[in-house]
Write a structure and sequence with these properties.
By secondary structure, this protein is an alpha/beta fold. It folds into 2 domains: 159 residues, HUPs (Rossmann fold, 3-Layer(aba) Sandwich), CATH 3.40.50.620; 119 residues, Elongation Factor Tu (Ef-tu), domain 3, CATH 2.40.30. Helices cover 30% and strands 28% of the residues. The strands form 3 sheets. Strands 1-4-3-2-5-6 form a 6-stranded parallel sheet, with helices on both faces. Helix 6 packs antiparallel against helix 7.
Amino acid sequence: MKIIDLNNNNIILEKSYIALGNFDGLHIAHMEIIDNLVKESKKDCIASSVLIFKNHTLRELKNSDFEVLTNLDQKINILDKANVDYLYLIDFKDIKDLSPNDFLLFLKERLKIEGVFVGYDYRFGKGAKASIDELSNNHLNIKIFKQEPVYYNNEVVSSTKIKDLIKNNELSLAEKLLGRSYYLEGIVDHGKKMGSKLGFPTANIKLSENYVLPPEGVYVSQVIINDKNYIAASSLGINYTFNEKIPKIEAHILDFDRIIYDEKISINFIEKIRDMKKFESVDELIEIVNKDISYVRNFRDNL
């Protein structure tokens, strides 16, 4: 897959079919669009492409730190594995004020688009004024391929639905709708090294994005470091015992003794063990954490 940053004024020469949307999570409904895009492109002997905004549209429109399911790197990796030919990147602010007609001209003249693949509820143009029906009747002869809703257990699959499931600790169902495990990416921060002092060193994870998070608690988790998988006992939330105020993620990786500060790390929360709580003493904390670690070790050994 070739990645082209449109903010660098690249000249596009090859015609293509394109998929449009925020694609937050690239869940099973999104992947229906992408898979159909690749299939139809091959059938019609034309390149496939996807237009991705560098920032979620709602972040730009509402000027907020909108929670997401995937960062840009994750989207790139997923689309590359889906055999898309071109990925176009652009800042949403550069096209958000285009009228519906000007947006179509941008697709046709700048990107050489011959066909557009969108979800059933897609809208376009400044203020999302235009519907798919208006897109279908365009005067530029751009073909329109509309994806109907995808259902799971009689409910429409959507990024919003998946986010609600994650927040409600329905992680298994959320991952069914995603079509894969839900990983959060970040960097191992130095932290206060409190875990090491207590006998169970942890990787303090500084997330790369404002991800949607499951509820506060201690979890069986899986982490990925340098493409290798490890099982960990991880806490998500505030360390009440030491009167901390800021929530954080700490992962005690089983049977792991490497120094990994500033390295990239991904974490997937698998199963919640217990809630976070304030312990009466450090000794009580150590006792409960050792029980957590034993639980996680047993989980791993029974996989």
